[in-house]
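Most newcomers find our protein records easier to grasp once they have seen one. Each record describes a single protein and holds just a pair of labelled lines. A learned vocabulary of local backbone shapes supplies the integers on the structure line. Nothing more is needed to start thinking about how sequence determines fold. The record below serves as our worked example for the rest of this section.
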Amino acid sequence: MTDRTRLRRFPEQGSHQRADLYEVLDAGFVCHFGLVLDGWPMVVPTNYGRLDDQLYLHGSIASRSLRAAKKQTLHACVTVTHVDGLVLARSVFEHAVNYRSAMVYGIPEVLTEPEEKLVGLEAISNQVAPGQWEYVRSPATEELAVTTVLRISLDEASVKMRQGPPSDGDGPDAELDVWAGEIPLRTLRLDPVADPTLRAGIDLPGHLAAGRLAPGWTPPPEADLGRKGAPSTR
């Protein structure tokens, strides 16, 4: 725990346990990469991959944020959020959102060795579609040269979650004739749609077959992955 990751508001909803951090990160593949460029904050949505205690991000060498990371030491913040449901209470004040979130602080390291870049790209690829890296063609030398890969340590991070119904069920508003409860939200994986130019006879590979949960999926209600309480800001 550091001063940046200390949970000051509703700390009972938070965690600094590495297992909880892994759980939130591994459930998704889109993050928001925040940094300050030329005196202004900049937040970029991008894919990521986790491998052990490292987070990998990538992009074109033409990317403004990634070019800046190569030229100077940048302090960055990476956030991942999963929205699990709407919490509708009897009053507007008590409305909330059920969610799981992770916040990672660090100084991005720009990888220059091809072997290290390949490790990062494999982590990102398999985070989005497990098994895809082994199935498709590997990056060519010239493709690797125009790709920037960043690595950020998970040493400074925190997790926050909310689950459960509205918190006004035992207050005076419970007497109001107003419906209250939760509207769960789920990320669903739909049926694959083949490229119109795909040659006949190429079947969908097993690792992309139906039945696999989509990244960002919401665990079943009985899973103990969060704590009840009101939504909060850090």
User: Anything to note?
Assistant: The chain has a mean pLDDT of 85. Strands lie at 14-15, 30-37, 40-51, 54-60, 76-88, 96-106, 109-110, 147-153, 156-162, 181-184. Residues 72 and 108 are 10 Å apart (CA to CA).
